[in-house]
Amino acid sequence: MRITRKKVIAIISSTALVSSLFLGASTASAAPKDSGTVTVWIQGDAKSWPAAVDRANKMFNSKYPNVKVDIQYQTWGDSLKKLDAALVAGNTPDVFEFGNTQVLKYSAAGALKDLSSSKSQFAYSTNWLKGLEEAGSYNGKLYAVPYYAGSRAVMYRTDLFASLKMKAPRTYEQFTAAADKLMAANSSNSKFSAVYMPGKYWYAAMGFVYDSKGAIAVQEAGKWKGSLDSAASIEGLTRWKNIVDKYSKADKSGDEGGQWEVFAGGNVAMSYSNGWETCCIAPQKGAFFPMPSIRAGEYMPAFLGGSNLGVPAKAKNPEWGVYWIKSFTSGQAMREIVKVGNLPNNTSMLTLVKGGNAQVAKGASSTWFVPAAEKWVNVENANVLQTMLSDIATGKKTVAQAAKDASAEITKLLN
Amino acid sequence: MSSATKFRLGPKKNLWPYLLITPALAVILLILGFPVFRLITLSFQQFGLAEIVSGIPTWVGFENFQALLKDPEFWTVLRRTFIFTFAMVAASIVIGAWLAHLMLRMNPILRWLLNTTLILVWAIPALVGISIWKWMFSFEFSIITSTINRLGFDFAQRNWFTNTFSGFSIIGGVVVWGAIPFITISIYAALTQVPKELLEAAAIDGANSRQIFRSVILPILLPIYVILISLSIIWDFQVFTQIWVLLDNRPASEYYTMAIYAFEKSFGLSEYGMGAAIALLMIFSLLGVTWFYIKKMVQIGDGNA
Question: What is the ipTM of this complex?
Fold first, then answer.
């Protein structure tokens, strides 16, 4: 039922697209190309959902049989640098995947094609995840289409909890009480972490800040101001430091990159993890519960990570780019993306999320997001939060001092 | 005599060398000249994302340079880079020379072993070598930490990069480790070229080994040392990959050297004009050091000869 309806939509929208293509072409006084190559730069993560990529390419090629899809997998570390270079060289791809915290700078600079007029053609565009849609919009216009999302919850060792006759905690007090019990029961193991919390894990630490009603930065009279030194933020950071000090043997200057590997090693009872991390923790058995808030009955806000797909304004074949995105975010492709353990780009497919991920999806009802400042990505690139957190975790600076320094830096970078 | 007459008789023939060199020169100019030209123009522009998109740069004169020279972070990074470079060059030349002299006196089998090891180190791609070092000093799975712990110390799990001194020591170790093969083999090769007669003559004249080294070996080896030291300065001044990879592609600002600083400004913050200005200043300070150094060494060489 749903598929046929979508087919109809696809046909209607593709006719719309083709006619708009002709209209555009007539002004350019050249016949529209029907063969060539559409260049797609998406992150290598998509190699974990090849079925979705296949479906997208099939759908794309059934409309443009003579257009070759050239998918070039990127890495998160340097894809923006490559995009900048491609923009200078006038050699941009037709589709580019942004992390949802990266895209605003590019939309604001006019580097992306305005997709507002074709918004309705994208599947589920009426109930896209709000966080992702906002990330891809600027001044009320759509510049990048929600692709998929990811969120975090607490992954815990079911066997350890069972041996202490504990259930998954539902309040913050239960959470710390469980951690206390686990530490006591494993006091002979010097490497044991009841809560594995690396010192640079800013997605986790900022959750504590937002749970205390603090924020990374706030807008005041049109200017951004770092607000990690507010009383509420400091309260959150102090709670985070307590977790690090009392329950974690993780690297205080390290990040969360390989935390599932450590979990697999058997010295970790709980870690703040992505839904997919259960894939790789054998021989341990893990399940998820949403991280409880300090307010009873609520969850700690989780960072809604995710990706958006945009078409660079200078793309050579923008029509093909738009249609490929449409194919890749179609219901069929999205189903494949969800199967692998991601959250879909829309609310109506959240029910498809199964297993441990269902708990992650549940926790994603309460989320936080980075400040919607055009220059936010500079704060990420300058490692301001990581540096602050590792200074706090290692004790190099007090919470108040580190927060004050970071806030000043953030104010400087955002304006 | 005959070549001089040819020179005067055939001015046409003289064009040949220039003609022959033209393609090479053109290629070099294109490959090297254009980026340098672009770098210089960029350093006088404000060139961020907005300029990239519009394609129209904003000329700002010396503003980038002024801002840099006023920024205390720039001076901290510059000082750090100089200290790091000096330490690395000294360590790699001293260890390299010591190994070379050792090789001269070594049992042939041992020499062969050392030679092979050095060449192996040289043959390992930089990235692979650095990754191996990174493993050895990783937090969770470090063989170094666990060996130390097994010897009876208690280092628990240790992040060697939390402390910048131990962090830079490891980075330095990787840099020196990578530089030693070339330096050792070059000095060893030069040492084997010192004429035996000279050494014998000096010994007969009653010179002791220190005098022989100072008055016979050193003057002959001096050109090699000049080349090796200036190359080392150039290499160590712009060390990038070692720091970048060892610190997970996200070095904290206390690990910034000039190369990392320029890269972060350019690509991290999309301030390409500023990044270009840093790179230019870096080139100039490097030229300054090397030029001063080479001049001094050449003077010493002339004095001894």
Answer: 0.73
